Amino acid sequence: MVREALLKVLEARPEEPVSFLASYFEKLVLSGPQGGAAGDRHGQQQRLVRALWYVRLAHHSHRTAFNNNVSMAYECLSARGRRKKPGVNGRIYSELLKKICQDGEAPEEVVSFLLRKIQCRDHEAVPFDVFRYGVLSCFVLLEFVAKADTLYNVLDDGSGVADKRVCQAVLDTLEDALGASDFSVPIHYLEAGSKLGPDYLALAMDKALLERKICSSMNREEFLKKATALFIAKVKPID
């Protein structure tokens, strides 16, 4: 138990290691046999809290640590009491995905669209690969929304509204980068990234401003919805 806790400290590298360890052991006690016995609703919620804590420990770019934490979250949710078979069902899996998405600033409509693609039916058994895919998709969406929001801050130049021509040019560039890439091949991530570099975006924005069209604006909400819709279109639905 202590060894596992120390490994988590090394993986997460928290700013306050002592507080981190205190929280770790608290979650461990709450989701243990006494804290979550017999699969009752209260015990299930405690396991859900602990699973959520696990998946937040490491950024998804730290692949080994992230995969280990997702595995521990899966095992935590699989414990369902003496009278029930172990495993994660679609209902608690969906609850976890919703809680992950609640932390971000993704529009509710966008989150609902993503969840419809990656959720399972309440009674279905959720394999680990599906579980990991769903959790990862939610975290990537939140990061994508955060980056799109930062990009809009550049486009509106602090005014609160941005030129629609420029916004659409950026969205078209993003769509081109995502649509032309087969992300099953790792090198294509780099190709997509090159199309979203400052130079490429600057050219697209300059071209948009040179067009002689009536200038209108695009607000932040509209920009985020359109940007995230492009991302969600690349998410493969769970069969």
Automatic annotation (TrEMBL):
<dbReference type="Pfam" id="PF24480">
    <property type="entry name" value="TPGS1_C"/>
</dbReference>
<dbReference type="GO" id="GO:0008017">
    <property type="term" value="F:microtubule binding"/>
</dbReference>
<protein>
    <submittedName>
        <fullName>Uncharacterized protein</fullName>
    </submittedName>
</protein>
<dbReference type="Pfam" id="PF02197">
    <property type="entry name" value="RIIa"/>
</dbReference>
<dbReference type="InterPro" id="IPR003117">
    <property type="entry name" value="cAMP_dep_PK_reg_su_I/II_a/b"/>
</dbReference>
<feature type="domain" description="RIIa">
    <location>
        <begin position="9"/>
        <end position="28"/>
    </location>
</feature>
<dbReference type="InterPro" id="IPR057632">
    <property type="entry name" value="TPGS1_C"/>
</dbReference>
<dbReference type="InterPro" id="IPR039235">
    <property type="entry name" value="TPGS1"/>
</dbReference>
<feature type="domain" description="Tubulin polyglutamylase complex subunit 1-like C-terminal">
    <location>
        <begin position="44"/>
        <end position="236"/>
    </location>
</feature>
